[in-house]
Amino acid sequence: MAATKIDGKAFAAQVRGQISEHVQRLKDDHGITPGLAVILVGEDPASEVYVAAKHKQTVEVGMASFEHKLPADTSQEDLFALIDQLNADPTVHGILCQFPVPDHLNERDVVARIDPAKDVDGLSVVNAGLLASGETGLVSCTPLGCLMLLRDQLGNMSGKEAVVIGRSNLFGKPMGQLLLQENCTVTIAHSRTADLPAVCRRADILVAAVGRAEMVKGDWIKPGATVIDVGITRIPHPEKPGKSKLLGDVDYAEALDVASAVTPVPGGVGPMTIACLLANTLTACCRAHGLVEPEGLTA
Amino acid sequence: MSIDPKDPRLLRGAPVRQRILDDVQAYVAQHSNIGRIVSVSIGDIPEVGIYVRNQARVAEKVQLPFDQEYWGADVTQEECKARIQKMNDDPDVLGVILQRPVPDHINVRSLQSAIHPLKDLEGMNPASIGNIIYNDVALAPCTAAAAVELVRETGLNMEGLEVVMVGHSEIVGKPAAMMLMAEGATVTVCHHMTRSVAMHSRRADVVVVAVGKAHLIGADMIKPGAVVIDIGINQTDDGIVGDVDTASVIDTAGWVTPVPGGVGPVTVAILMRNATVAHQRQVAAGWLN
To answer: Can you tell me the distance from the alpha carbon of A39 to that of A56, in angstroms, rounded to the nearest whole number?
Structure first.
């Protein structure tokens, strides 16, 4: 029997709908508009596309969007001055600096400058530590998106075997922490793992995030598993010259025959990332005002 | 069944501790103005006294100045926080140890967060934990770091090693898992909801146990030749025992840490090493000359 295709696009739209309703209530009942500030340094074309998409969706859910485009030669001092100003601005609840930044700026120092309560990307050491300590913080958007998809698909995950492939700070490590919080037995596998297919075959929940096209084959997957594919690799389109095609870390066609549910690439995890950015901004806004947080939008 | 304390399969803490303390002592000898460690005990909790005396004795051995502060059981949260902030600002305070447990009215997590990360000798501030997650493991929670140090002592190459961590506590299990992963191991974290711990522990090259259940791990749960690190300390009618049935496991494992005498002695040495790391970081941050 063919596996269910997990429709991340539809689910993300549903999450944005929920956010939009909550934003409207904040406006009606408290006169509060959640605000997200996005900083872009330099003119990386891919980054400009992301920032534009974030801006569009922020406005669509009724939030205030503040865009700050700075020239590529902006000094660290000037960037920090802007971050300090946004940290202090009560109309800004979330701050995000689009990466990569030009080489003369250090990403880690930039993130560390953002108030952890406004770090809606959830990448600061403080938020990483709060997550690992099981305390209230802000959770990095892509792992949070995967968690939402898994909760929707599986409900209670307690006691399930979960394997995360990839140990990046951005994804693998926070994903592992989130699955532990759900009481899964968690293995984080990576490039040094001795027998990766064997480790993957144990998994009731398999999350792949390494960026190697179609690395996970059908026979790596336990029958009936739920497979979340975070990898994105762009290749030249096999049939349409001049066009490109996106591939995930999982051989989707093979996975469909073995798994019970699989996220496609594109249209799976991808759309959840911006939805979770908006969810984090809303959560940060509610916390800043001492209001009840919306349910189901955070870890 | 008793084990010969000289059995070579026992991975004893004493030599590891001695090596770390020798390094600390050498460092302190070169930095005469290193400042002092301040140990804070709140309320009159008898078991805390034992820890503090032990730490003070080891500090004296390596000539690290060690102040013992005892705050009354009626001290308020705000007052504690204010005093900690004062220590953060005091250049003569090298680092702060907040002894646990504390009285019920004190929020220990909030106080741990108040200790500046560069003075956080126990690695408990969220920023310190976050640094561990991000592979900056120098100022780590002491017990977790001690477990890693003992695995290192076996001489095994940690890259690609299958490690099973039994227990997912915030202070020990999770940081130890992250630190072993940073070394290149494939780490699986098991806990009370894991369907079969044995299924995992039996395939592991290294099993690290921190659950607080006397003799939970027996020989039938261990792969022949594995490294077994026992972090548990359980008071039983037979005295203090670990989470591992050492006498049974020793014939199967390649190495097993005894309890007492395994992880415990290394933990205090790590605390002292953290003090020297804190000093280096404070110098690097321009706080000290």
So the answer is: 15
Please tell me whether residue B97 adopts helix, strand or coil conformation.
strand
Query: Is residue A98 helix, strand or coil?
Result: coil
Contact A192 B194 (CB under 8 A): no
CB contact under 8 A, A135 and B181: no
Contact between chains at B129 and A128 (C-beta distance less than 8 A): yes
Give the residue numbers spanning the domain of B76: 32-117
Residue type, B247: A
Closest partner CB to A185 (pick from B126, B133, B190): B190
CATH code for the domain in which residue A90 is found: 3.40.50.10860
Counting the structural domains of chain B, the total is: 2
Q: What is the chain B residue with the closest CA to A129?
A: B130
Q: How many residues does chain A have?
A: 299
A200 and A108 inside one domain: no
Verify that A90 and A156 share a domain, yes or no.
Answer: no
The dihedral sign for the CA sequence A242, A243, A249, A252: negative
Distance from CA of A197 to the nearest CA of B (A): 13
The DSSP output letter for A194 is S
Facing residue for B193 by CB, picked from A134, A159, A176: A159
What tokens were used for A250? Answer: 């999982």
Residues B176 and B260 in one domain: yes
**CATH code of the domain in which B162 resides:** 3.40.50.720
Residues A91, A200: one domain? Answer: no
- Residue written as token pair 């477990």: B147
User: Each residue of B226-277: pLDDT tens digit?
Assistant: 999 999 999 999 899 999 999 999 999 999 999 999 999 999 999 999 999 9
Tens of pLDDT, residue by residue over A207-225, are: 999 999 999 999 999 999 9
Looking at A121, A204, A249, A251, which residue is catalytic? Answer: A121
Task: Please tell me which residue in A54, A118, A173, A222 is annotated as part of the active site.
Answer: A54
Claim to verify: residue A186 and residue A90 sit in the same structural domain: no
With CB atoms and an 8 Å threshold, state whether B127 touches A186: no
Residues of B in contact with A109 (CB under 8 A): none
Instruction: Tell me the chain B residues in contact with residue A137 when contact means C-beta distances shorter than 8 Å.
Output: 126
pTM for this one?
Answer: 0.95
- Contact: A132, B162; criterion CB under 8 Å: no
> What are the tens digits of pLDDT across the range A95-112?
999 999 999 999 999 999
Measured in Å, how far apart are chain A's first and last C-alpha atoms? 32
Q: Quote the CA–CA distance of B156 and B158 in Å, as a whole number.
A: 6
Q: Which amino acid is at B98?
A: L
One pLDDT digit (tens) per residue for chain A, 299 residues: 689 999 999 999 999 999 999 999 999 999 999 999 999 999 999 999 999 999 999 999 999 999 999 999 999 999 999 999 999 999 999 999 999 999 999 999 999 999 999 999 999 999 999 999 999 999 999 999 999 999 999 999 999 999 999 999 999 999 999 999 999 999 999 999 999 999 999 999 999 999 999 999 999 999 999 999 999 999 999 999 999 999 999 999 999 999 999 999 999 999 999 999 999 999 999 999 999 999 999 98
Please indicate whether residue A98 is annotated as part of the active site. Answer: yes
- State whether A261 and A205 are in the same domain: yes
Active-site residue flag, A54: yes
In this structure, what token pair is assigned to residue B227? Answer: 């490294």
Domain assignment of residue A61, yes or no: yes
Specify if A60 maps to a domain: yes
Has residue B223 been placed in a domain? yes
Question: How many structural domains comprise chain A?
Answer: 2
Which residues 68-127 of A are in CB contact (within 8 Å) with B?
Answer: 124-127
